[in-house]
Each structure stands twice: as C-alpha cells, then as structure tokens.
Design goal:
With 213 residues, the protein is of the alpha/beta class. The protein has seven helices and seven strands. It has a single domain, classed as Flavodoxin domain (Rossmann fold). α1 packs across α6 and α2 crosses α4.
Amino acid sequence: MTGTTTTKRIVVVSSGLSTPSSTRQLADRLTADAVSILGGRGIEVEVEVFELRDLAHDITNNLLLGFAPPKLEQALDAVARADGLIAVTPIFTTSYAGLFKSFIDVIDSQALTDLPVLIGATGGTPRHSLAIDYAIRPLFTYLHAIPVTTGVYAATSDWGDGGDGVRSLPDRIYRGAREFADLVAATDRSNLVSDPFALDRPTGHLIGGLAGE
C-alpha cells in the first residue's frame, strides 16, 4: 500500500518598505520554522511570498477603481486558496502599516474564513509589541480568520548582538510557528465557497463607516 503525502499551501505577506527589510527577515524566519515543523510531520508545503511594496500601486488602483490588476489578483487568489497565512507588518504610529491594511481591505470578505494566520510585526522599540493584540489580531478575528495564540514581535534590539531579546526571539518564532503548523495541519478549507450575496466593498470601508460612499 502506497502512502499519500499531504500538501499544504502557505501564503506569506510582508509589508516592509525597505530593502533589505527586517519585516521580510522575520517573515522568512517564521516561514522556515513552519515549513520545517510541517515537513517533520510528513507534510509537504507550497509557499508563495508577496512583498506588498511591489503591489502598492495595484492595491491603490483596486481601492479606487474596484478591480485588481493581474499581479494583485494573483496574490488575492493565493490567499483565498491558502491553508495558512503568515502576515508580517512594520508598526507605524502604534499600529499596522497603511499598506498592510489596504491589502486586507481588498481581500474578498469571505477569503479569510477559518484561515490560520501567524501574525508577525517589527518596530523600533519593544513598547509597540502590544499592537499585535490590540490592532492586528482583532482585524483578523473580525474577518473570521484564526490567528494563532502567539504573535511574534521583533524590535530593533532583537536583531542585535547580545541581550535577552536576541536569545528569546528564536524561541518566540519557533513557538508561533509550531502553533501555526498545528492549525495548518488540521485545517481543511477545500469546501469553502464564496457567498454570492457578500458585499463587494472593501472591509475597511465597512469597518470605517464609509459603506455609503
């Protein structure tokens, strides 16, 4: 009897603005650990990575005109078909980046339902780590996604030499990746269908009270 190999699809979204980017570095570390953990369980993983800065103009055009150019459509389709999402944003002014939120706004309102999400964030100071729980996690919960318990925040000092933060960051990355892998391994989104009566306005317009515009 020949065994079958399960394949899971993970989409990685990084909204860092610089090159190189600590946001992308954190996304890559989270992805590597998640793929390794799933691989150890005999699960193959297909990974697609999207840098939102490369899609910034397309995201804006979608918000203004209501349609997605091909590159953005590819990213939106990938999210809708994914078994798990790793989403990493820099923290600006105590919350997620505007580009990150704009991308979430153009995702179909049903696309994140029951989708495991591993949240990552980067910033200059550890004080902004709370943004994961008061800003980013509620956003995904509102959209019926399943954010893992451990969100991973990396301050500038976490990437330096020495200090407790440097030693604990790999531990936090692994813990978050393990929780994410547990959900991805168990999830089955193959039967999800889009709601034909769903509103076609971006969720940000609804949340922000702009539904009538």
